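Section 3.1: Structural characterization of target chains.
Under the original work plan, the team committed to producing a structural model for every single-chain target entering the pipeline before any wet-lab resources were allocated. The record below documents one such target. The sequence was received from the expression subgroup and is listed exactly as submitted; it comprises 388 residues.
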Amino acid sequence: MQIVVIGAGVIGLSVATELARRGARVTVVDQHVPGAGTSSTSYAWVNANKKEPQAYYDLNLAGMEAHRRLAEATGGGWLNTGGHLEVATDPAHAAELEQRTARLTGHGYAVEQVTAERARQLVPDLLVPLDAGPIVYFPSEAHCYPQLYLAHLLTAAEDLGVQVVSGAQVKAFDFDAGRPVLRLADGTALGCDRVVSCVGRWTGELLAQAEIPLAMETFTRPGDATVGYLAVTSPVPVALSGLLTTSRLNVRPDGAGRLQLQALDLDQTADPRAVPATDSPLAEELLDRLAGVLRHSRAATVSELRVGQRALPSDGLTVAGPVPSRPWLYVVATHSGVTLAPLLGDLVAAEVYDGVVQDLLAEFRPDRLLASGVRHAPAQPPRRPGEQ
């Protein structure tokens, strides 16, 4: 079977390697270079923490397990399994965290409420206010270094004979003797048996070329659900091995002493067309918050400030499945791309190549976003601490 995968991010390359492992002849095409899209601007938190409804929670939980299995089997240095500590310092966050902890405990999720003393053992440089609300530890959560994961995938893909073509923009879908043909911008025609679309936030644009109106959120204004700030600091002597979430700042290691910062309440001005400078008031605000969360971070500077753009189906949930009117076309799009990448690689390959329907994907077929006249409430930005 000859298969073209469109998109060389963490999802596309995961799918491509698993298809090739099963025996498919795979070509990956990307309009840019591997990892240039959402994969390169992700907080990369591997979790099922706030994932609802139940089917979405189950899918993300399986994604966490798939990441860990793959990392253990390959010695993957892309996965940091240092866990996640969450500290509530305002009443709304405290109430929401208590409710969420109870709900996750009921699911059997790995979660425990800890004392301030235990929190400082987990994060030695943590500054915990005396009036801090619940402090909760999620030991099974992790974060990913997407570029290292992509390096692993590219090596595996090359070993399996996958052809990766960069700078190749798909301009049209066509047919020749009943087989789909991709027309590229440079005039190249790629014939195949199946096509798998893994283009993230460009999904709606790509599928429109095949007259398939899949409902995806697109950037329309600063601070909408598709965008958010991410900052990377200079190296600092801070003892932090995993993720840390507080009421005002999310922090995780970014390698070599650098930290990655995220503050969801500041995202209201995020605009990919106007990224603030690394010495802007926004950057200074992030650094001030960091200094209030972790000791020894006062000397940090912001070395990178990005506006991440999310791949977001219109109802906020994953899309994975064939398009009913184009059975040769399989579509994958999800906001939880990093968490789900190894799992979706396996599940999608099983459906596309083996023809084995995967129960975990039953609730996430593209049909729900293709039906004429069906409306969905607009996807919402990630919930800030304390939001229900």
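Helices lie at 10-22, 54-74, 91-107, 116-122, 146-159, 203-208, 281-291, 337-354.
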